Amino acid sequence: MRARNGYDVPALLNWLGACNYGITGAEHQAVLRYFHEEHGAELVTLEDQVLELLVTRRPRTPKSVALAALEHYAHCSDIVDQGVGNIEDLAASQLRRTGWCFWWDIGLTIEYVAHHDQAHRAPSPSPSCAPVSPGRGPS
Description:
Layout: H1 9-13, H2 25-39, E1 42-46, E2 50-54, H3 62-75, H4 78-84, H5 87-96, E3 99-103
Antiparallel strand pairs: 1-2, 2-3
Helix pairs in contact: 3-5
């Protein structure tokens, strides 16, 4: 897709990846533009209900880390409520990772088979977006 900026893509597509929350493509665009301006974030993945950002200027001070985690949570509560478990762990992951994930559970049950795992599971973020415990995962 041709776009002047990656943050424009959700608006151009009228992306409804957070349909359960009523967030429009234009609203995603505004949030992504803000993260771009504040943290150098670039959109790298846009799927059905997942978007991922590559962040070149991660927050470093305790205040900026806490604020970024709260802003992330405000736009995508599922990343905490159904993912990492609390704002502190989200903030810790933002300190370690250059990739920030946003995903919204659309409320469907999806069965999938992971490498050696035959268990049936509820919707899960993409592998690069999977919630991790503090101190684990790529940086």
